[in-house]
Amino acid sequence: MTSKTLDSIPINIWDDYYEDGYVPAGEVQSTYVYVESSEIKLEDKEQCLLKIKKYIEDNNLLRSSVLSMVYYDTAVKYPKLAEEMPSMMFTRWELHITPLTHKELDYLLECLLESGLGFNYLPMNFYSES
Fold it and tell me: How many domains would you assign to the chain?
C-alpha cells in the first residue's frame, strides 16, 4: 500500500444503471466495482478486487452473474479526448458484474459490509454511489 493516511480502502460499487423493471428491450443491467483512491497503487487495487471477486464466488453470492476483471484505460476508450485533454485520462482495474439488478446489488453490498474483508491490514469500506 502506498498510503499512510488511509484508515480504510474505499470500494465503490457503481449503481447508476437501469432501474429494476425499466430495462429497455435488448439491454442488460451490469455494473462495476472499483477502488476509489488515488493513494493506493494500481497493483494493490487489482489485488483488492481479486480478493472481492474470490469472496463473491466462494460464497456463491451472485449465482446468475458473471464476474470479470477489466483494465479500464480512458485514453484507449476515448483517443480523441486523450489528445485534447491528456490530464483528464486515467487507468484503473474494475470488477465487472453482469447481470446485476439493484435488488441484487443491495444484497451484495449488505454481504460485503458484513464480510470483514481487508487488504494489507486495512479494512475495505464498501459503498454504492453514483
Answer: 1
Listed residue (19, 13, 17) closest to 53, CA to CA: 13
* Residue 122 belongs to domain spanning: 25-127
Residue 8 in domain: no
Residue 70 lies in a domain: yes
Whether 13 and 30 have beta carbons less than 8 Å apart is answered as no
φ, ψ of residue 66 in degrees (nearest 5) = -105, 130
Residue 118, beta-bridge partner list: 123
pLDDT tens digits along 42-76: 999 999 999 999 999 999 999 999 999 999 998 89
Contact 105, 98 (CB under 8 A): no
* Predicted model pTM: 0.90
DSSP three-state, residue 54: helix
Instruction: Evaluate whether residue 90 is within a structural domain.
Output: yes
